[in-house]
Amino acid sequence: MTEIGESQNAYIGADIFCEFLEVAIHCILYTRELYPAGVFEKKKKFNVPVKICVHPEVLSYVTNTVDSIRLLLKENAVFKVTVVVVTPDHKPAERFVFEVARPTQNIGNDKYLYRLEESLRGFLLKLSITESLLKTLPEDCTWTVQVYTRESAAVAIEQKQHLKDFPWILADERETTLEDAKMIPLKAVNSDYLQMQLYAEESSIK
Amino acid sequence: MGTIDEMYLDNLDEWVNDENQIVTFKKLSLELKVHVNKAKQMLYSFVQHQRNNKDNDHLFVTYFVAGLSHPVVGVKTVKCMVVPEENIEAFKSTLSVVTSSHIYSVGRSKVKDDNKLYLADYDSIHKDSTTNTDIFKFSSIKYPKAKLRSDTEVESQKRYKTEPTTTKQVNGTSKQNGENGHASQKPKQNGENSNVSQKPAAKPQKKGGIAGMFANQAKKMSPEKDTKNKTKSPEKDTKEVKEEDSKDSKKNAKESSNKKGGVMAFFSKQTAKANEKPPEPVKKDKIVKSEPEVKQETMKKEPSPAKRKVSDKGKGKRSKSGQDSDDDSQKKRRRIKAVLIDSSSEEEMDYESPIPSPVREPSPAPESPVPKEVEKESPEKHSPEKTTYTNNGEKKRKRRRKLVPKTFMDDEGYMVTEKVWEDVSTDASETEQPPPKKPQEKVTKSPQKKKASPKKKSPPSAGGRKQAALTNFFKKK
User: Is B113 close to A133, i.e. CB distance below 8 A?
Assistant: First the structure.
């Protein structure tokens, strides 16, 4: 594949990943019971029903987050995106890590993205059944999204984000490290458009 | 049996405990290729086995329960529910009669809603749903009369839908005849080149456009049909023509659908082509619009096949057409444009079509239809502004500039269509004899042409143009 083709695919991949990430965040919010089940509505994505939080502020927060990640992705500046569940005493209890990379080789054979869609469904299924692998969370947990980027990109995004009124800040060390973490691999996909793997990490103290 | 038991228990153990899947009986039956009822038994014995022998209490089991509810206002309803294990008794108590109760799924994670269950067996159930007969084979719900259609059946159905008219119109005439007919028209056209009758121009436009579409479509299906179609009309006498009129009116609806088919086909092809022209949606609209008109006009025609020959009546009609022309002219122009685009695209389609396209063949005879149509349609479309409609239907000579699409093979072997301005003058009168029937057949399809000039003059002009186009085509090549 030519250079142009590859970067185009990566561009498409960024969009696909962001679409998926949005659904996945909502899915995590739902399965980890971070919000009451009543604020979730059933929608259809990737041909399967998914639960989307309809609370307007949550919704716009997720949308803004994903939008700015999209910007970073297109500059190929993102290593991983984590959704961190934080206990009431501000310690990260568990996190879901989406590691992304640009496609390295041309696998082909998935012209209509049928297989990619199938694996994204697989991701959602895995996410929705992780609860059986994780300990139940304490009450009143909150959550946050952390993005691991290149330093230059972080500076660039800072300037842009202020314009959009959705600033990102540098995360503290204590927010990013889980004590005595246990890793649970969930799923990985490698396609023409993106490479991604998903795993959950769980701290032993909750 | 013992060994089989072991195996499926191992399988289930792996899926449920190691891979943390939710296993529904449907998924199990598809994966292991066993009947659904057997799959339910397997799941049940797996759960028993896990709980009794392995002290695994972390399994989350759902049950499917169906039955008649207690009568509400004297009406009993059938209820089917998938319920978690702990609610099963509660749900059963709401039923007066329990008709079925069996295990639905087993998994280690809690099922909070139906999403998960649906997601769990989505991929195994939807995998190859068209060819996956296992779903039917292992189900206990059967309808033996429902059979999968074979590919050939599906094909024939499609064909029947898309080209009902063309098949009807095909009669016994052979391909040879068709070619002869074309050949005979050629010389006349050459002679006519210098003169153009205005009215005929208007008519042929439509004819060319719609007829061309039909011809093209037919060609796609089979080149033979196409030629038959064209040649058929000249052979018919007026009586037949009349009959056809009435028939055509009936057919109109079908034909319109036909047109659509052609247009749709065109769209689909066009999407593939990046370089094609933009106004596709518009085109569609216009074509659709034109259909009602067509019907109206054919209605008018029907009662008066005889009138056509009577000059007075013919005049009356014509004058009418003249009046109409004002109203219509706008529509016509639009339509014409649309047709033009169509025609050019159709040409391309022809080239692309998997059926051996005439263009690529060295022999001139098969090629003729394509260029003819192109020219027919294109000049007419562009000329309408200049044409004047006379009430008495006189033929006038006109000089026109036409935008003519030319198709040729470029250095790299691609078919290239270009629009070229050409000066052409045509005489409608000369063209009269051979083509009239042709146009008529086609005219019936496109009533507008008839409106403009019920006389047969118009058709000849169309023929002439065709020929010009042909010659041009060859020269360019």
Answer: no
Q: Residue A49 and residue B22: Cβ atoms within 8 Å?
A: no
pLDDT along chain B (477 residues), means of 10: 68 83 86 85 88 79 88 83 87 87 86 79 68 67 76 79 52 43 43 42 45 51 44 44 48 46 50 45 44 46 43 44 48 51 46 44 42 43 44 56 71 71 57 44 39 39 49 59
Indicate the burial class of A126 (C-beta count within 10 angstroms; 0-12, 13-18, 19 or more): buried
The nearest CA of chain B is from the CA of A165 a distance in Å of 35
Please give the residue of chain A at the shortest CA–CA distance from B115.
A49
B111-116 long-range Cβ contacts below 8 angstroms, 24+ apart: B111/B22, B111/B60, B111/B62, B111/B84, B112/A31, B112/A37, B113/A42, B113/A51, B114/A49, B114/B82, B115/A42, B115/A48, B115/A49, B115/A50, B115/A51, B115/A128, B116/A125, B116/A128, B116/A129, B116/B22
Distance separating alpha carbons of residues B197 and A90, to the nearest angstrom: 89
Asked if the C-beta of B114 comes within 8 angstroms of chain A's C-beta atoms, the answer is: yes
Distance CA(A145)–CA(A157), nearest Å, equals 15
The DSSP letter of residue B75 is: B
Q: What is the DSSP annotation of A17-74?
A: HHHHHHHHHHHHHHHTTSS-GGGEEEEEETTEEEEEE--HHHHHHHHHHHHHHHHHHH
Taking the CA of residue B272 as centre, how many other CA atoms within 13 Å lie in the half-sphere pointing to its CB? 10
Spatial separation of the C-alpha atoms in residues B403 and B260, rounded to whole Å: 25
The answer to whether residues B258 and B166 touch, using CB atoms and an 8 Å cutoff, is yes
Inter-chain CB pairs, A–B, below 8 Å: 49
The helix/strand/coil state of A126 is helix
Here the tokens at position B81 are 């529910």
Q: Does B110 sit within 8 Å of A37, measured CB to CB?
A: no
Distance in angstroms (rounded) separating the CA atoms of residues B19 and B22: 9
Model-level ipTM above the cut of 0.90: no
CB contact under 8 A, A128 and B119: yes
Q: Distance of CA A138 to CAs A86, A87, B172, B301, Å?
A: 10, 7, 84, 83
Using a CB-CB cut-off of 8 Å, the residues of chain A touching B58 are 132
Residues of chain B neighbouring A47 (CB-CB closer than 8 A): 122, 126
**Contact status, residue A27 vs residue A51, Cβ threshold 8 Å:** yes
- Rounded CA-CA distance B406/B422 in Å is 11
Crossing angle of helices B114-126 and A114-128, rounded to 10°:
150
Which of B109, B118, B123 lies closest to A129 in CB terms?
B109
What are the chain A neighbours of B126 within 8 Å (beta carbons)? 47
How many other β-carbons are positioned within 10 Å of the β-carbon of residue B271?
A: 10
Note whether B197 and B457 are within 8 A (CB).
Answer: yes
Judged by a CB distance cut-off of 8 A, whether residue B175 touches chain A is no
CA atoms within 13 A on the CB side of B120: 27
Q: Tell whether B123 lies on the interface with A, counting CB pairs under 8 A.
A: yes
C-alpha distances out from residue B256 to A106, B290, B338, Å: 46, 9, 15
* pTM for the predicted model, two decimal places: 0.51
